[in-house]
């Protein structure tokens, strides 16, 4: 099995296709298999690389929380790229992976051809931040004491997962089955090291406003925790475009693969053709009229 | 030319195709020609009807602003349907026509198979309400004193129109040329009677919470005045789904016709198949 090494930690990855590279970064409750519908589609024209984060077997599962952080997660993306001989890539992440994708863009703008951030933002809202930290801490304890069972039971009825169950019960079953194969220790460490300690979007405002890398933010209209952060990104970052997908929950790429692939393909083609442009400054006029020239 | 009568006011319409009916309701700066990419696409499977609002020739242009209002605009849709013998239709409106479609759904729910509401929300934000009314009044006076081609010069390159200008200069030229042909009196009266006096989206909370008609809200991510109203409708109305289209301004159907047609096609097919359902109660956002 192919592994990349990141500071001695082995990261499992898979590859498909040839061409301009895309790196896929998975969400907390998923793994590289969450990108199957994208790997199959985009490998026709791109070199697709998906990897499992540290803490997600067959990647290594370090036992100390100090081995996990958002900055380390960003370094892991860079390590996978280095191992694969990829200088620049489109980076596409979902949820935890979307947060990592954004931070990758801020840390390594020259290595990112574009960024696609699906459902980023859990814990970003200052109003519910304390609640998010508390829930994550409780959840981490539960992973260590009771294993994966309680988290999977919670995911089964989560307000931003029931959309998938209703639309595509087969994909939902697959999501739960794969979740059950994860490492409880890896999840506890990921929560404590990455999720609970990452800086909020608000604290990144000045950096995001200066970001020059083409950014596509994608959220479901029923993923309540991601809507505010999605709008925040669109409004503070001229390089950002925002898609909200109707009647859709958290993992948009899993729930609406055909639409997600189509929209992503359009975005990547725009970037690859050199025709992408940031938001027109004239679009920020608060009046419905143009400013008098 | 085909007209229907709405209580003495003649409304011009065009038709294409056969099947389940769709009625298209245009925006302030457009007319039925704005729906050309939709008429060409949906007429393959639907009976498409687009009409010009009162104030938009060849429809009549009543001289007094009192002949124009949000309720009258919604009822004009019902009159068009009645005159054409349609018992139920999908209603698709943009901006001013989006408001009209929404009010049509609230006033005439049994006549609506579904509602598609594009770019609705201007004038709803309480913080920007005063500016909206001031802009609307300024624009109405420009129509009255300068005539249409001069009056629209600044408006047509407004903050949610420049996206079309950048993306599709040909469509933008067409939009400006069609806009310039509008009646100055009809436009001024529409601004004063409909736009300046319509209720804000936020004031419709109770009606929206009870609305059972499948509703699709569509907004560009750079159409700033429509984003919060769109999210408000999504959160208030269990029958609503919300699409935000990337790097897009006001008239999404004109700016991104392929994507708009595709998503609308999916939505109408879901409704027509009987498989549409409102939001799962388990997915309600925290109060």
Topology:
The complex is a heterodimer of chains A (293) and B (287).
Chain A: E1 3-6, E2 9-16, E3 20-25, H1 36-42, E4 46-51, H2 70-84, E5 89-94, H3 96-107, E6 112-118, H4 129-146, H5 149-156, H6 162-167, H7 169-179, H8 184-195, H9 205-210, E7 215-220, H10 224-236, E8 240-245, H11 252-255, H12 257-272
Parallel strand pairs in A: 3-4, 3-5, 5-6, 6-7, 7-8
Antiparallel strand pairs in A: 1-2, 2-4
Chain B: E1 3-6, E2 9-16, E3 20-25, H1 36-42, E4 46-51, H2 70-83, E5 89-94, H3 96-107, E6 112-118, H4 129-146, H5 148-151, H6 162-167, H7 169-180, H8 184-195, H9 205-210, E7 215-220, H10 224-236, E8 240-245, H11 252-255, H12 257-272
Parallel strand pairs in B: 3-4, 3-5, 5-6, 6-7, 7-8
Antiparallel strand pairs in B: 1-2, 2-4
Helix pairs in contact in B: 1-12, 2-3, 4-8
Compact summary:
The complex is a heterodimer of chains A (293) and B (287). Chain A is of the alpha/beta class.
Describe the structure.
The complex is a heterodimer of chains A (293) and B (287). With 293 residues, chain A is an alpha/beta fold. Chain A has one domain: Alpha/Beta hydrolase fold, catalytic domain (Rossmann fold, 3-Layer(aba) Sandwich), CATH 3.40.50.1820. Chain A has helices spanning 36-42, 70-84, 96-107, 129-146, 149-156, 162-167, 169-179, 184-195, 205-210, 224-236, 252-255, 257-272; strands at 3-6, 9-16, 20-25, 46-51, 89-94, 112-118, 215-220, 240-245. Chain A has an eight-stranded mixed β-sheet with strand order 1-2-4-3-5-6-7-8, with helices on both faces. In chain A, α2 (70-84) packs across α3 and α4 (129-146) runs antiparallel to α8. With 287 residues, chain B is an alpha/beta fold. Chain B is 43% helix and 17% strand. An eight-stranded mixed β-sheet of chain B has the order 1-2-4-3-5-6-7-8, with helices on both faces. In chain B, β5, α3 (96-107) and β6 form a beta-alpha-beta unit. In chain B, α2 (70-83) crosses α3 and α4 packs antiparallel against α8.
